[in-house]
# Entry
Amino acid sequence: MTYSRVLLKLSGEALMGTQGYGIDPAIVNSVASDVAKVVAGGTELAIVVGGGNIFRGLKGSAAGMERATADYVGMLATVMNAITLQDGLERAGVPTRVQTAIAMQEVAEPYIRRKAMRHLEKGRVVVFGAGCGNPFFTTDTTAALRAAEINADVVFKATKVDGVYDKDPAKHADAVKHAHLTYQDVLSGELAVMDSTAIALCKDNNIPIVVFNLFEPGNIGRAVAGEPIGSRIGNPA
# Structure
């Protein structure tokens, strides 16, 4: 495998598949199967999961909720996804621990960096829930932060599209996919990949980002093996 320790970012929207809401068990099982193969190959893997399939803080704020309150509700939604992922992974034979940035000791461990790294060294998958524990920060930023904290080699963003395009491919038939981008390309072009804080964090810590389609079985393993799938964001060659 090209990478020895990776951070996988799963969006909540990806987990709901073709459903309009909630979690699609088929997607969870597919992710668990792919992750099981990656871990069996010796790669250490951590996951940050979003909560947009259940609740989005920005939408709650737009509907009249206080932004901080809406973001806290969104963080709780990510914990629901994290526990569901843990169940799917353990049914696939992968020992998994959920760590949350908001303490809820009856269902998960609190986030402790050194403990998370120890779990990874022992071959366990660690799923990080509740974002970074603070409102106004996205789970994309959490993914970049946790990747830097655990010394991950790369951030994988598994999403509903197969890479980064110059415009929305769902709306524009002539959209062009980028195979390689620099961090500055993303920031200056305001491309909707991850929020600017997440991109800047990865840039400052020289952590590459690979964006690929979650719904293609085996793509997580291909990404870990270094195959040229999706779009890669990093420093200029």
